[in-house]
Request: fold
Amino acid sequence: MKKILVLTAVAFAAMSSAALAGDPAAGEKVFKKCMACHAVGEGAKNKVGPALNGVVGSVIGKHPEDYQFSKALQEMGAAGKVWDEAALTEWLKSPKAFAPGTKMAFAGLKKDEEIADVIAYLETFK
Reply:
């Protein structure tokens, strides 16, 4: 019985992980919602929000260096927090809930699949 429970838990974890694995091509389409304020790709420059090349895995509130982040994000970075998948997921769901005091006005993405897709897309810009 114990073995069945363990195998079921492993299978469920694998399915959950696979369900959250994003599609970069779909993420490119979802990213159009972000393009008014952010840029990615060769030659990307800061706009109202920072350019997002290399954001995945970077220290929160520090990348890119030439952008003035809110105090809320600077404090997270000072505490060593990074933009990993979990942090990006929470941020993209509700920036103001993730970092009260943030300058970002975007209300957030509501669909988990869109969030996973955008993160997968951003990962292509190392």
Remarks:
- The CA atoms of residues 8 and 14 lie 10 Å apart.
- The chain has six helices and no strands.
